[in-house]
Amino acid sequence: MTQSDREPTEGARRAGEGLFAPAPSDRSVLVVDNVFKTYGPVSVLDGVSLAVPKGAIHGLLGKNGAGKSTLSNVIAGFTRADAGSILLAGEDVSSLTLTARKKRGLHLLSQHSEIFEDLSIGENLLLPNLPRRRSLIDWGKLHRQASLLLESHAMQVSSRRRAGDLNASDRRRLAIIKAVAGDARLIILDEPTAGLAARERQHLLEWVEALTAGGTSFIYISHHNDEVRQLCSEYTVLRDGKVAASGAAGSLSADGMARLITGSDVKEFRREGQMAPKPPIVEISDLCFPGGGPVELTVGRGEIVGLVGLLGEGPQELLRTLGGLLPATSGRVLVDGRPARIDSPGHSLAAGIAYLTHDRIGEGHVASMSIAENLSLGNWPRRAGWMISRSSMLGRMRQARAAMDVVMDTPDQEIRKLSGGNQQKILLGRLLERNPAILLLDEPTIGVDVAAKEHIHRLIDDATRRGVAVLLIAQDPDEMQRLVDRVVVFSKGRIERSLSAEGLTADAIADARSLRKPMTERRTT
Amino acid sequence: MNGRKFLLDNVVWILIIVFSLLAGVLNPFFLSEGNLQNVLVQATTLGVLVLAVSFTLLIGEIDLSVIGNLVFSGMIGAYAMQEYGAHWTVAVAVTVLTGTLIGAVNGYFVSYMRMNSLIATLAMGLFLQGAVLGATQARTLVIADEGYGYIGSATIGTWPIMPVALFVIYLAAHVVLAYSAWGRNLYATGGNRRAAHAAGINVRRVRLSAFAAAGFLAGLAGFLYASYLGGVSVTVGSTTLLYAVAAPVIGGVSLLGGRGRVLGMLGGTLLITVIQTGLQLINVSAYYIQMIGGAMILLAIAVDAFRVRGEEQESV
User: Fold this and answer.
1) What pTM was estimated for this model as a whole?
2) Domain annotation for chain A: domains and CATH numbers
C-alpha cells in the first residue's frame, strides 16, 4: 500500500488479457490469468482471472461450490489448472509443484491449519528448518528465534508451549506467522474466522490487516460479507466457476454484495415456509452430553430446525449424542411418544434417529466397498437370516439411483470413484432406507458441487413432506436460511433463543452464530 | 491397462507357475503326481492357519497366537481321549471349541479392553506354547485313535483326502466372507471402523467375533495337524507363524484391513508351500532354505506393493 504507482509494464500487459482482469500493474504480486478447470463433465473454473497488488487484501466471495476452494487449490498448487496461468511476482508458477510455490512465498492456509499439536509452538514455527548445532537441534536458539517471531507479531505466548493447547484463533495466528516468517508474498486465508466468536474475529481481522504493512498480500475467503467490506481493498465474486463481479470493496453495499453472490438468475431451491405448528415427533428433555446441555427441544413432524452456534458450543455435540456417537449423561428422548435408546448408532437408527456425518471420508462411507454395499451398510437385506440378498441390495440401489439421480457406472464400483455429491447422495439414501422419524444433518452439502447441492436440498425437503423431521447444521448461513422453518441458537452448550423463519435473513443467522447483537430482535412480536 | 491390472491382481498364481516350472526343470520329480499330493497335504494345515490370520487382518488387526492355539487346543483334544476316554468326535469338538474360546479371549482383549492385538496375541501365543511345553514336558502326545487320524492319513486310490478338507474350508470361508452379512461387516469394520460404527454395525462385537473365528480356525488346524502327524508336538516350526502371516499379504490381503479375497489367501498359501518343498527338492543346502524362502516372500510383497501403488494412482 506504500508502493509508488508506476507505469504498467510489458509483463503486466501480457498478463492482462483475461476478460475480467482488472488491469494488473507490476505492483501485482499475484496474477491469475484465464484459468480453467473441469472435473469430469463439471466445469469448476471457467476462465477466472484476478490480480492482487503488493500489500493488499483481496476478498474472494461466492457460495459453497462456486469454485473458491478449487481456485485456491489451483493457485497454491494442490491441483493443476487445465488452462491458464498463475504469475507470482511476474514469474509463471503454473507448472511448479506445491513445495516450489511455497518456497517462492505462496501459501494456502485452510480452516484446519496444519499444526503439529504435540510439538511446541517454537518447533511449529521453524519447521522444517530447525536451527542446529553440529547436526543436533539447538533448542536454545530455536526458542530465541521463535520468541522473537511471536513478539514481533503481537502474540504473547511462550514458544515452549504445546501447540495443541492453543485456542482456535491463536492456531490460525500461528499458521499465518509461520507463513509470514517464511517470506510469504501471498497468503490465501480460507475462512480464517470460521467458528470464532465476534470479539475474536475482530481481533484476528485487525491483526491480519497489520501484517500487510510488511508487504504481504492476502486472498481472503469468507462467508461474512461485512468482513470483506471492512478488510479488503478489492474483491472478486465467483459464481458457478466464473467471475461474476470484481472491483473496489469500499464501493459496495451489503445488499449489493449479497445479490452478486447469489446471482438473481440462479435457480436455487428454496423451501416454502412451514409456519403452521405441527404435531411433535421428537421430544428432547433435559438432555446433557459432553460439551453441553441441558437441552430442551421439540421437533414437529416434517419440520426443519436449523441449529446455529460456534464450533464446540453445542450443535454438533447434540447431533452426535442423538445419533449415538457421544454418550448422553442424562435426559430423555421421545420418538413418537416412545423413549428412544441412544447409546449407540445402531440403537439410535433402530429408534428412528438417523445421523449424517459432516466427515464423509472419515466416518461416512467405506471407501474400499462398492456403491451398493455402502448404500445398504449396517442394514443388509437378508436371506435365510445370515446371507445378504444381492438381488434386494441391487433393487435398493436401482431405486436410490433413480430417486436421487446418482451418476455412476455400475453398483459394484468402489464408492471412492464417485464425485463428492454422488457419495453424499448414497449416504443420505442409506439413512432414508431406514425410514427414520428424524434426520440429523451435519453439513449435508459439504464438499458437494452446486447441482448436487440443490438436489440434496430437494431430497431433504421431500423427506419432510413424508413427515420426517430434520435437525440441520450448515456453516453457510444462506444455505440454512433457504431450508429451515425455525432456527435455534446455541451458546455454551445450551439453546439460547429461537428464531422463526419468517423474515429470517442469512445475515441474521450469521450474526446469531457469532453472538453479535441480534438484529432480529426488532422483529419479535 | 486392464490386462496389466489382471496380471498384477493374479501375480501370486503366476509366481506359483513360474516357480513350479523352474523347480521342475531342476528336479523333474517336483512336477510328479506324488509331489503335487505332498504340496497339497503340506498346504492344508498352513492354509487353515492362513485363513485364521486373514480373518483378523481383514478387520485391521492381527492374531499371532494361532500356532500356540494350534498346539494347545490339539493337546486338550489329545488329553480328552487319553485321560477321559472321550470318543474321537468329542475330542474334535473339544479341540475346536478350545481354539474358539482362546480366540474369543483374544477378541475381548483387543475389542473391549482395547489392547494392541500384535502384542496381546504374541503374548497369548507364548503363554499357550509355554503351557503345552510345561504340561507335556516337551514329549509328543501320541494319538492312536483311527477315527481321529482318518482325515490325516486316509486316501482315495492313491490320493490323500486331507486336501479335500482344505478346499471345503476355503469354499466355506469364501461363501461367508463374500456373501454373508457378518462377512461384509468384517470388511466394513476393517475398511473404515468409524463409518461402520456410524452405520449401525456393532463394531465391538464384529471385532471380537473376528478373533473368535480365527481361534475356531486355529483349533481346526490343530485337529488337522494332529490327525496328520498322529500326535501333538510342541515343536511346530517357528517359521510357520511367519509364513501364516506372510501368505495372506502375498495373496493381496491388506495389513490395514478391509481388503482381501479368499482366492488370494489360497494363492499365498500355495506359493509358500511350493517354495518350501521346491527348495528341498532341488538340493539347496538346508542351511540356505530359510534365506531363499525369505527372499522369495520379499519379492512377492514387492510386486504387491507395486500393484497397490498402481491402484492408488488410478483413484487420484
Assistant:
1) 0.80
2) 10-115+187-262 (3.40.50.300), 116-165 (no CATH), 280-367+436-523 (3.40.50.300)
